[in-house]
Amino acid sequence: MSQTIPAPVRVLSEDAPFLHATWNDDQTSACGYVVIDRLITGIATGGMRMRPGCTLAEVTDLAREMTLKMGAFGIHVGGAKGGIDFDPAAPEAAEVRVRFLRAVRPLLERYWVTAGDLGTQQAQLDLAFAEIGLGNTSFHAAMVRAPDEPQVRTRVQQAFSTPMDGLYLSELIGGFGVAKATLAGLEHLGVPVRSATAVIQGFGAMGGSTALYLARAGVKVVGVTDALGMILNKDRGLDVELMLSARTRGGIIDRSALRSDDVELDGDIWLSQKVEVLVPAAVSYSITADNCDLIQARLIVEAANVPTTAEAEQRLLNRGVVVIPDFLANTGAAAGAWWVILGEVDGPDAAYARLSAQIRPLVVHLMGDAARKQISLRSTAAEFARQNAERLAVDYGSVVPTGELYTATQRSATSTPAMSSDDPAAPPRSC
Ligand SMILES: NC(=O)c1ccc[n+]([C@@H]2O[C@H](COP(=O)([O-])OP(=O)(O)OC[C@H]3O[C@@H](n4cnc5c(N)ncnc54)[C@H](O)[C@@H]3O)[C@@H](O)[C@H]2O)c1
């Protein structure tokens, strides 16, 4: 199928962010950045990554994406992001993380609720918060706004420290949402789930959980990559649960646990595999104008943040490849956390159920809208998310010292559009 979709796919607003800060470590070569794209209800949210080469421009893009994510899901919070240019595998990584957080502590106290991201696990972040004297969770700025702070802290603590199959909510719910979005995309393309194959770049919090829930839904996951390379099994698919049990910190798979017919290959070839679905779930800007013509998949589901450059996406759209953008596909992790923080759900099972009920109708609705308008899914979804974010900012205030973060919860539910909810809440163990 070949189709030219004229709409621009670059949807990130070029407006300057509300605030950005740059930090230079005085003990290593590390630099760090915080960008608050916008405040809503006086607060903003977004993960904190650590990777060599991270830049202020990258963190700015990611912060804008966070505003879109919150808007798309009708959550009355703005977008922010943090990034440290440093190798997370270096022995000094933990100390660098602590020094960075200490430097930007005023933002963490009031404005910026952060979480695990590329190269930073949630548990590492929570430990670093404790070390700088900000309690035991990176959600600190939201906790201190709660009228019933001890109760909210207990709810968050319970939700995020109860393992399921040895993994925690922060390592599972993001990929659960990505898998749900993938199933909606396959349905849109008329591809039966049981005949679909997938390759995933990255096997950390997002990639690992996406692989798990896609496999449980019946999609054959034939390949995954980590920072060391790719593991492929085209004939019978990978044993995702086995590989998760052999995963080390940092999302690296212990090769000694692989089965004899699993093949090890160079990581770069992940995107040229002949499969229905590709899921970028590692670094940003991994699909570019230089490599996008190698893609044979019909559906790309962005588990990573900003993995596809604008030029690459335009060329993919012209070839009829569907791209489900990051701010729809991967918001499960942030939305789930905020639903727990705000008390809109009381624990992991309810968070999975709500995500399940919300994400498929959202993706289906916007895919239909894009098809009707003959514009890209990203364009129509971004417009929807921006309008929602604007409305939330008007309703709850933007730069307010203390908005109605908790009491606003009921009203924010009306900020999502009326869409059919024919997607039954699924049990958390399957997709
Ligand atoms: N963790 C979250 O809650 C969350 C939520 C939404 C989006 N994201 C996005 O998902 C992506 C992955 O985040 P994560 O939290 O899963 O990270 P992670 O650190 O847990 O895992 C990253 C994975 O990518 C691999 N990797 C690292 N560098 C690579 C490279 N150059 N090439 C190929 N693979 C590489 C690692 O080995 C690991 O398997 C990021 O873009 C992040 O912004 C994360």
Q: Assign the CATH topology of the largest domain.
A: Rossmann fold
Structural class: alpha/beta
Q: How far apart lie the N and C ends?
A: 29 Å
Order of helices and strands: EEEEHEHHEHHHHEHEEHEEEEEHEHHHHH
Rounded radius of gyration (Å)? 20 Å
Strand order of the largest sheet: 12-9-8-7-13-14-15
Q: Quick one: CATH class of the largest domain?
A: Alpha Beta
Q: Residue-averaged pLDDT, rounded?
A: 91
Q: Count of DSSP helices?
A: 15
Strand content: 5-15%
CATH architect. name of the largest domain: 3-Layer(aba) Sandwich
Tell me the domain tally: 2
Task: Give a verbal description of the structure.
With 431 residues, this protein is α/β, with parallel strands linked by helices. It folds into two domains: 127 residues, Rossmann fold; 205 residues, Rossmann fold, CATH 3.40.50. The protein is 41% helix and 14% strand. The protein is built from 15 helices and 15 strands. The strands form three sheets. Strands 12-9-8-7-13-14-15 form a seven-stranded mixed β-sheet, with helices on both faces. Strands 1, 2, 3, 4, 5 and 6 form a six-stranded mixed β-sheet that branches. The radius of gyration is 20 Å and the shape is globular. The chain starts with 18 loop residues before the first strand and ends in a 19-residue tail after the last helix. It binds nicotinamide-adenine-dinucleotide. The site of nicotinamide-adenine-dinucleotide (NAD) has 31 residues, from α8 and β8.
